[in-house]
Design a protein that fits this description.
The chain is mostly helical. Helix content is 77%, strand content 2%. It has a two-stranded antiparallel sheet. Helix 2 runs antiparallel to helix 3.
């Protein structure tokens, strides 16, 4: 087996584990059927890549900016849309996905459209550039482990138990005094931010 190919598969697997964990936080734990999750992965990827290419920004600064931008955008989207119930939310979520995808494909001066961005710089840690697949694999493993630990901590906390209660019966959760819109908005922001971080790793 070609070792470089095997490492490539393992790197991609780690990134998609992160993405799956973030999506499971929304659908599995809270019952929010988000169709726009891939858009936030794309936002993280494009912001991180563009900052690295045009501004020569260090990976860790660019991925933090990508994560913060995704958090702000997801909050702006979540506040009005998460008040919509059932099929109407799914339609709104799908509409967001199409809009963001269209921006990626048609804003040629920024994203280069269907051609995509090339020459994205490799991450640097303390001046050491992660050129080899082995070093980048270790980076993605660290991020994946941190994601798993974070999700386990969050979902086993009182906050996580409220998310499960919302998933099982949102009306009952409201009846005992829980602001379900608040909890859904927060978890949506957290999930989308994690998706953006996975996208940033994917781009680099």
């Amino acid at each position: 087996i070609d070792m470089d190919y095997l490492l490539h598969i393992l790197i991609i697997s780690c990134i998609y584990i992160m993405l799956s964990l973030s999506l499971n936080l929304l659908i599995g734990y809270t019952g929010i059927l988000s169709i726009s999750h891939a858009a936030f992965m794309g936002i993280g990827a494009y912001i991180s890549a563009i900052l690295g290419l045009s501004a020569g920004m260090n990976f860790f600064f660019s991925f933090i900016i990508a994560a913060v931008t995704s958090a702000v955008l997801s909050a702006l989207i979540a506040i009005p849309t998460l008040k919509i119930k059932g099929d109407y939310y799914i339609i709104a979520s799908f509409g967001m996905q199409i809009i963001i995808y269209s921006i990626f494909m048609n804003w040629d001066s920024l994203t280069h459209g269907a051609v995509g961005l090339t020459g994205i710089p490799k991450p640097k840690i303390f001046g050491y550039e992660l050129i080899s697949k082995q070093s980048y694999f270790l980076l993605t493993v660290v991020f994946t482990i941190l994601s798993i630990l974070f999700i386990n901590k969050l979902t086993s906390s009182p906050f996580g138990r409220i998310l499960k209660a919302i998933r099982e019966d949102e009306i009952a959760s409201q009846a005992i005094g829980k602001n379900t819109t608040y909890y859904k908005t927060v978890v949506f922001i957290v999930g989308c931010t994690m998706a953006a971080i996975a996208g940033s790793l994917y781009a680099h």
